[in-house]
């Protein structure tokens, strides 16, 4: 079972990453989907997507949950029926979930790709990156910032939040593996801790919302 990595963030919060290497048939072993998820699964044209979706159910099992413990709201945001917080991500052959009993959480896995250079201006003031040593470092940094903003979006969940104008990720050094971020939207300020890790040309970023 390719459970790739687990991270204990603190006593209440932890995350797990799966590296999808199984066949679709093998991923079905021990998995039962609710009618809602089965219906979604049936509509997935890509095998990669179906396998990612099934692997998430194995990550849930790692925490003692089944698909039936998960409900999706009208925006597609997942919730656990027992009131614990959850966030889900998939990117190519990596998938991840983060679960917390007390904190709002968000997670995002992204493949590091040069393509991000072309869209950077849409989500971050690009000037901040000019001091980095080379293009590879810029791509790494942009991917972390993008993942942070996706993670925050998954927590905050308001349509209309602009990655460029409403979410600010504090500058950071790679070796610290963490930073902070703020969302200022419609006069409300909320603060977040951001942590990140890199593996096999992928970046995983996860966020927790500070208690007020
Ligand atoms: C919803 C969104 C956050 C998903 O992120 P993604 O990188 O495309 O895909 P990921 O694999 O990381 O995440 C998908 C998971 O996010 C979760 N998700 C979907 N909608 C969500 C929402 N509104 N809130 C929280 N989580 C959500 C789901 O669990 C989904 O997986 P599942 O349906 O298989 O369980 C993303 O599509 C989105 O809408 N982002 C905001 C877009 C935006 O404002 N962009 C500005 C660019 S400048």
Tell me the distance between the termini.
39 Å
Topology as a string of helices (H) and strands (E) = EEHHHEEEEEHHEEEE
Low-confidence stretches: none
Determine Rg (CA atoms, Å): 17 Å
- Chain-averaged pLDDT: 95
Q: Helical region count?
A: 5
Look at the helices and sheets and give the structural class.
alpha+beta
Strand order of the largest sheet: 7-11-10-9-8
Keywords: Transferase
GO molecular function: holo-[acyl-carrier-protein] synthase activity; magnesium ion binding
InterPro entries: 4-PPantetheinyl_Trfase_dom (IPR008278), 4-PPantetheinyl_Trfase_dom_sf (IPR037143)
Protein name: 4'-phosphopantetheinyl transferase superfamily protein
Please give a structural write-up.
The protein folds into 2 domains: 3-102, 4'-phosphopantetheinyl transferase domain (Ribosomal Protein L22, Chain A, Alpha-Beta Complex); 108-209, 4'-phosphopantetheinyl transferase domain (Ribosomal Protein L22, Chain A). The protein has 212 residues and is of the alpha+beta class. The model has no long low-confidence stretch (mean pLDDT 95). Helix content is 27%, strand content 33%. The strands form 3 sheets. A 5-stranded antiparallel beta sheet has the order 7-11-10-9-8, with helices on one face. Strands 1-2-6-5 form a 4-stranded antiparallel beta sheet, sandwiched between helices. A hairpin with a 2-residue loop joins strand 9 and strand 10 (188-199). The protein has 5 helices and 11 strands. The structure holds coenzyme A. Coenzyme A (COA) binds next to strand 5, helix 4 and helix 5.
């Amino acid at each position: 079972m390719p459970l790739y990595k687990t991270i204990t963030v603190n006593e209440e919060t932890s995350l797990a990453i799966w590296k999808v290497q199984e066949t679709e048939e093998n991923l079905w072993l021990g998995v039962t989907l609710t009618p809602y998820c089965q219906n979604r699964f049936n509509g997935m044209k890509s095998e990669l997507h179906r396998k990612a979706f099934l692997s998430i159910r194995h990550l849930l099992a790692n925490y003692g949950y089944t698909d039936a413990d998960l409900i999706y709201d009208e925006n597609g945001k997942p919730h656990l029926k027992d009131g614990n917080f959850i966030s889900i991500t998939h990117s190519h052959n990596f998938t991840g979930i983060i679960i917390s009993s007390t904190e709002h959480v968000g997670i995002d896995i992204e493949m590091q790709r040069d393509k991000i250079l072309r869209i950077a201006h849409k989500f971050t003031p690009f000037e901040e990156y000019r001091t980095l040593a080379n293009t590879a470092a810029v791509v790494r940094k942009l991917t972390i910032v993008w993942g942070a903003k996706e993670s925050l979006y998954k927590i905050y969940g308001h349509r209309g939040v602009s990655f460029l104008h409403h979410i600010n990720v504090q500058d950071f050094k790679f070796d610290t593996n963490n930073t902070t971020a703020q969302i200022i939207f419609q006069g409300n300020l909320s603060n977040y801790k951001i942590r990140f890790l890199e593996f096999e040309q992928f970046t995983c970023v996860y966020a927790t919302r500070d208690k007020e």
